[in-house]
Amino acid sequence: MQEQDEFQETKDIQIVAYEAKYQSAFKSLNVEWISQYFEMEEADYKALDNTEEHILNKGGKVFVALYEGEPVGVCALIKMNDSVYDFELAKMAVSPKAQGKKIGWLLGQQAVRTAKELGASWLYLEGNTLLKASINLYYKLGFREIKERSSPYKRVNIQMELALK
């Protein structure tokens, strides 16, 4: 019975492509989780204040999870200028009131699927091991830990990659 309830929950969630009307949700959901555990940094403001310029116009994508029509989760695929990695999975945030509904999993699956459709070979992400649920999600999506690369964020203490081909 519990599996059926979980299916019902995910059936009510819709993953949609970013539109300008979701800009405030993209920013507020990210500010909410970052501020809860860390502090906002310059690179956060760049991506969150200028989403079209810093993500979309450079070939990236942003996904929004809607629960009963309300944006409750977001995730970005940021095009990387890198010799190995095609996109960074970044800016994933789910509202505390919507956690436990598999929204992060659905957003992550959509990002991986889209990266494959765009011909990507490798995905990259940065995180912090303090956020155990997020790290578990990344492993579940197939990511594996790699040795440190440079990061613009002070909070990053783990980096991961996912081979898509």
Automatic annotation (TrEMBL):
Q: Which UniProt keywords apply?
A: Transferase
PROSITE patterns given for it?
Answer: GNAT
Domain N-acetyltransferase per the UniProt entry, residue ranges = 24-165
Q: Which Gene3D superfamilies match?
A: 3.40.630.30
- What are this entry's molecular-function GO terms? N-acetyltransferase activity
> Which SUPFAM superfamilies does this one have?
Acyl-CoA N-acyltransferases (Nat)
Q: Which domain of life is it from?
A: Bacteria
Report the protein name in the record.
Acetyltransferase (GNAT) family protein
